[in-house]
C-alpha cells in the first residue's frame, strides 16, 4: 500500500458537482462486481448530471443538514468524500475513487466524520452500507445488524447491510 498525499477539509456548496463526480467514479470503480448494471446506473445517476441534483446537494451542505468532508490532492481533485446527516444519526457513506483506494483516505475521512458527529452530540451513527463496503465499515468498528434493501428513486431496491457504531 502506497501512502496517499491528501488534505481533508469541509465540503461546501461550491464542491457539489466535484463531489458528485467523485461519487460516480467511486461507484463505477468499486461496486460493479456486486450490483447489476441497472442498480449501478441509477445509483450513480444520469451521465449528464442534472442541475437540480447539484443544487439540492449544495443546499443540504449550506444548511448543515448534510455535513461533508472531502479529501483532495495537491491539484484540488477530490479523491474521496463522506458525509453525515446529524439530524438522523446517519453516516451517509464514505466514497473513494477506486484508483486511490486502500491508501488510508477512506479511514481518514471516516475518523473526521466520527469526530464531527461526536462534536454534534451524537452517541451513535447508523447507515445502510453497500454490500461492497461492508468489510470497510466492519474494519472500522461498525457492526452489521441486518441485511436490508435501500429504496432507489425508481422503486428498485438495492441490497445493503444495516450497520451501526457507538461513538
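-> sequence recovered:
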Amino acid at each position: 500500500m502506497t501512502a496517499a498525499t491528501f488534505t481533508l477539509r469541509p465540503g461546501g456548496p461550491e464542491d457539489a458537482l466535484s463531489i458528485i463526480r467523485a461519487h460516480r467514479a467511486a461507484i463505477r470503480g468499486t461496486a460493479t462486481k456486486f450490483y447489476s448494471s441497472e442498480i449501478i446506473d441509477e445509483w450513480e445517476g444520469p451521465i449528464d448530471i442534472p442541475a437540480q441534483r447539484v443544487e439540492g446537494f449544495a443546499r443540504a451542505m449550506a444548511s448543515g443538514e448534510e455535513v461533508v468532508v472531502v479529501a483532495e490532492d495537491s491539484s484540488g481533485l477530490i479523491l474521496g468524500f463522506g458525509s453525515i446527516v446529524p439530524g438522523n444519526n446517519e453516516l451517509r457513506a464514505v466514497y473513494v475513487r477506486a484508483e486511490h483506494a486502500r491508501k488510508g483516505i477512506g479511514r481518514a475521512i471516516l475518523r473526521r466524520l466520527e469526530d464531527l458527529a461526536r462534536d454534534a452530540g451524537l452517541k451513535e451513527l447508523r447507515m445502510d452500507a453497500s454490500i461492497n463496503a461492508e468489510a470497510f465499515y466492519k474494519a472500522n468498528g461498525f457492526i452489521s445488524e441486518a441485511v436490508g434493501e435501500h429504496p432507489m428513486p425508481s422503486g428498485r431496491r438495492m441490497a445493503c447491510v444495516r450497520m451501526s457504531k457507538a461513538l
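The chain has a mean pLDDT of 93.
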